[in-house]
Automatic annotation (TrEMBL):
This is Low-density lipoprotein receptor-related protein. Keywords: Disulfide bond, Lipoprotein, Receptor, Signal. The lineage of its organism: Eukaryota, Metazoa, Ecdysozoa, Arthropoda, Crustacea. Disulfide bonds join 302-317, 340-355, 363-375, 370-388, 416-434, 428-443. Residues 80-123 form the EB domain. It comes from Daphnia magna. InterPro entries: EB_dom, LDL_receptor-like_sf, LDLR_class-A_CS, LDrepeatLR_classA_rpt.
Length: 455
């Protein structure tokens, strides 16, 4: 009896062993077949694989991971045959996920990874949420998301600080309240004055009435000095501001009643001690609009868009010499911001000539020279985007608040009151390029002293 049981168990053991050998041999055969096919076949994203080589034939940026074709690390699948690299802020992109997978709260905007609306960029890897007054912050932009009149006062320089109201506003509750401006109030830009007082402007950091207007019976009202006319009705083509060529006294007095056409130029009748042809009040690196006397960034001249009320920044581009900040291009002039930008704007390509110079040579006018000899547009200096391959257009000390004293040979065309260096392109653009608005302070011509008539 026991012998029979033993015989049956032996047969069962042998049968199981043979079954496992058959199964193992079948698996080995199937695996060999799969590997053999995998070597010569192409695998796409999401398909089964044995080797990474088969995946790369379907997509060069993929690997075989756990038996499935997947994208390489720091890449994302766009479709079955394409893996796109994820990107940090400021880098080129084609899809939102390229940015958001690497930097939360960012997206692909105009072909570049940028922070989503309501977030402030911090270096290349973070998009910061708004920071309220008194709360921790890492930059001015983060505070201004909550209140436009606030800034980040650093506790540890260039590391972190807390949000406070700027000098022009008062802390009230959880907000920075900017007092209503009147004639005589302190100001940074003409836009501040115009927001509270019609026909006013900011001159010498003070709100005053615009040209052709005088203070009314209240300190927040400017009335026309030329009876029956207002600023909008004046013929700009017949006006000429201080320092501009003229042919008659009427041209000059239409812009400033206390000026006249003297020696072919509009000049103050009472003398030029504080205001005159050689001292208009505008920053010398700006362009002066002929009629209004408003000064704009020289980078805006000859850019194909009228930024002056009388379009003098574009009309003058058809003659020689070219306006300040522009570049001669055949029979016309183009904006200096187009020089060495990598795109040919002149028919003869002269705007892209000499954009790689040797030691001792200078780049074309209105462009910046990198340490490696490459020339880039003037506005590339300290614009928070690295344009030079060696990063010399973004020197940390000069571009930040740490800049104190200009060393011999150090490039700093415009020094802001807060110590930062900027290119001349930021002057009088209507935007705060310095971080303290000092680049927007000298954008209106001076006013001639009032003539005192003897009785």
């Amino acid at each position: 009896m026991n012998g029979q049981i033993f015989f049956l168990l032996t047969l069962m053991t042998v049968g199981l062993s043979k079954g496992k050998l058959v199964e193992r041999e079948t698996n080995r055969t199937e695996r060999y077949t799969l590997e053999h096919n995998d070597i010569s076949s192409t695998r796409y994203l999401g398909e089964a694989c044995v080797s990474s080589g088969a995946c790369r034939r379907g997509n060069r940026d993929s690997v075989c991971h756990h038996g499935v074709c997947t994208c390489l690390p720091f890449h994302m699948a766009q479709n079955a045959t394409t893996c796109l690299p994820t990107a940090l802020l400021g880098f080129e992109c084609f899809a939102h996920s390229q940015c958001s997978l690497r930097v939360p709260n960012s997206g692909c905007i105009d072909g570049t990874c940028q922070c989503s609306r309501g977030y402030a960029p911090y270096r290349r890897h973070l998009c910061l949420p708004p920071a309220r007054l008194g709360h921790k912050c890492f930059g001015d932009d983060q505070c201004r998301l909550s209140d436009k009149h606030s800034y980040c006062k650093f506790i540890i320089p260039n590391v972190y600080g807390r949000c406070y109201c700027d000098e022009s506003a008062e802390h009230f509750g959880q907000s920075c309240i900017k007092p209503r401006l009147v004639i005589g109030s302190r100001c940074s830009t003409s836009a501040e004055c115009k927001a509270h007082i019609k026909n006013s402007l900011c001159h010498d950091s003070t709100c005053v009435c615009d040209y052709g207007f005088t203070i009314g019976w209240t300190d927040n009202r400017c009335v026309a000095t030329l009876k029956g006319l207002n600023e909008n009705q004046l013929n700009f083509n017949q006006r000429a501001s201080i320092g501009q060529p003229c042919t008659s006294w009427a041209q000059c007095q239409a812009a400033d009643f206390n000026s006249g056409c003297i020696d072919g130029y509009c000049q103050c009748i009472a003398g030029e001690m504080q205001c005159g042809r050689n001292n208009t009040g505008c920053h010398p690196l700006t362009f002066q609009c002929r009629s209004s006397g408003r000064c704009i960034s020289r980078s805006l001249t000859c850019n194909g868009h009228a930024d002056c009320e009388d379009a003098s920044d574009e009309i003058d581009c058809r003659q020689r010499p070219c306006p300040t900040g522009s570049f001669p291009c055949g029979a016309h002039c183009i904006s200096g911001m187009f020089i060495c930008d990598g795109i040919q704007h002149c028919a003869d390509g002269s705007d892209e000539d000499r954009c790689q110079v040797e030691d001792g040579e200078d780049c074309p006018g209105n462009s910046f020279k990198c340490n490696d000899g490459t020339c880039v547009p003037e506005h590339a200096f300290c614009n928070s985007i690295v344009d030079c391959s060696d990063g010399s257009d973004e020197p940390e000390k000069a571009c930040k608040r740490e800049y104190r004293k200009k060393k011999s040979g150090e490039y700093c065309p415009v020094k802001c009151a807060n110590g930062r260096c900027r290119s001349a392109a930021v002057l009088c653009t209507g935007q705060d390029g310095c971080g303290d608005n000092t680049d927007e302070k000298h954008c209106e011509i001076c006013r001639c002293p009032t003539i005192i008539h003897q009785v």
